Amino acid sequence: MEVRPGANPVDVKTYDTARLRHDFLVQDLFNANEIKTIYSQIDRIIIGAAMPTDKVLTLEAGAELRAKYFLERREMGIINIGGKGTVTVDGKAYEFKYRDGMYVGMGAKEITFASADASDPAKFYFNSAPAHKTYPTVFIDPEKDILPQNKLELGTLEDANHRILRKYILPGQVESCQLEMGITSLEPGSVWNTMPCHTHDRRMEVYLYFEVPENAAVFHYMGEPTETRHIIMHNEEAVISPSWSIHSASATHAYSFIWGMVGENQDFDDMDGVDIKDLR
């Protein structure tokens, strides 16, 4: 498990491109028959990915957690962005298709990942956060299980930010201790997300960009509102956003991203907006 330290906004002002990418960008997440995990000391989120091909992968705690098993003191959310596959939690199998999701509560001891077809492997992306109690494990089919109020159409084509936001894990939809997850998808012709931008000092956030064409790029914007920086990203790469940082992007093509948040509260609308004219 790779461990990354926290980030001080005063220090980040001085970072060059290489240092920004080293500290905040997460690349090469999906590797055949491998589970990759990154432990960020920013609110102690774990970013992970499992891409089984011809064998079953078992999620282990690793020495860094000092735990008997991965979810001994944690919860996790999983979303599949690959082919069909199976997640098995303590002997119960859940069949995933593209964009299906799942919440797994604290205390689940054995979690395994498998693909239905080695030539079209599942790509299980997950976020995990410390937990204080056990909530039920829940499977999420985004076309059947997401409540109408948690599927939002936002923005306009005229502003190049027409998008659909689906909330998978949050209070009232799927209960958790602190983890929230969902998917936002840009409509054709739109390329901007989260603009006007915001911060939320009570929560940090991680974005995983996907459905980005091979010859396209995402320009992810971060930093304090008056000290913005950018990281150029490509398909199936993630970025860590501290609570003091904006998190916004534009791209050369429409795309989708999985957002995951952990922190002080679960109030989705608890954010501090930033006027575009105040950005620097």
From TrEMBL:
Asked whether the UniProt record includes Metal-binding among its keywords, one would answer yes
Catalytic activity reads: 5-dehydro-4-deoxy-D-glucuronate = 3-deoxy-D-glycero-2,5-hexodiulosonate
The cofactors it requires, by name, are:
Zn(2+)
The record's cofactor note says: Binds 1 zinc ion per subunit.
One GO molecular function term of this record is:
zinc ion binding
Q: Which InterPro entries match?
A: KduI, KduI/IolB_isomerase, KduI_N, RmlC-like_jellyroll, RmlC_Cupin_sf
What HAMAP family does the record tag this protein with?
Answer: KduI
- What's this chain's function? Catalyzes the isomerization of 5-dehydro-4-deoxy-D-glucuronate to 3-deoxy-D-glycero-2,5-hexodiulosonate.
List the protein's name: 4-deoxy-L-threo-5-hexosulose-uronate ketol-isomerase
Annotated organism of origin = Bacteroides pectinophilus CAG:437
Q: Which gene encodes it?
A: kduI
